[in-house]
Write a structure and sequence with these properties.
By secondary structure, this protein is mainly beta. It has one helix and 15 strands.
């Protein structure tokens, strides 16, 4: 599965929201029964683009075509939930872990159902990794995952990584434009 490229960060904003998809059954007597479809919400992402070079527009369009529009899934970093800086460390242990001295993994929405996306690593740890568990200050990776030890890197960033697909099954050439006065939106939805 090819991933979204972190260099395609939206230049005019990023929005995300969640939905639980509650099933409502209405009985003949007017009573209702409500059930949740999932234990955690499904996320939607709205990316606003404007000033993009033609090469970037072409790359995003080629990526869209490689996913057959809204058909195939890919990994996407939760930009709004990022944690960055020297407070992070990649620990080569068994299993490997990522630690946060400010203990914000849980409050930022990291979850054992999501992968973790690492960017800006000076030790070659950039990529998407499977997660076994998430605690307040520690993400424990799946046993098969391997990190190189790294700490005190101000450029190190971690994001929760969502498995998403495009919402629209059409993508016009002018969908992302070089015109500052025009805003184009790319919509993504999590697949769970």
């Amino acid at each position: 599965m090819a991933d979204w490229t972190v260099t395609w960060k939206p230049d005019l904003g990023f929005r995300f929201w969640s939905e639980y998809d509650t099933n409502v059954t209405v009985f003949e007597d007017g009573g209702e029964q409500r059930r949740k479809k999932r234990t955690r919400p499904r996320y939607h992402f709205s990316l606003a683009f404007s000033n993009r070079a033609i090469a970037v527009v072409d790359a995003i369009m080629a990526f869209y075509k490689s996913k057959y529009g809204a058909y195939d899934t890919f990994s996407f970093p939760g930009y709004a939930q990022r944690i960055k800086g020297t407070r992070l460390a990649c620990v080569n242990s068994d299993p490997d872990t990522i630690t946060d001295s400010s203990s914000e993994f849980v409050t930022r929405g990291f979850d054992s159902d999501l992968d973790v996306w690492i960017e800006g690593s000076g030790a070659g740890n950039d990529g998407v990794y499977g997660v076994n568990s998430v605690a307040v200050g520690t993400i424990t990776l799946d046993v098969a995952e391997s990190l190189t030890a790294e700490s005190a890197n101000a450029d190190l960033i971690v994001y929760p990584s969502y498995t998403v697909r495009f919402v629209a099954d059409q993508f016009e050439r002018e969908f992302i434009t070089n015109d500052y006065s025009t805003v184009r939106i790319v919509e993504l939805v999590e697949v769970i």
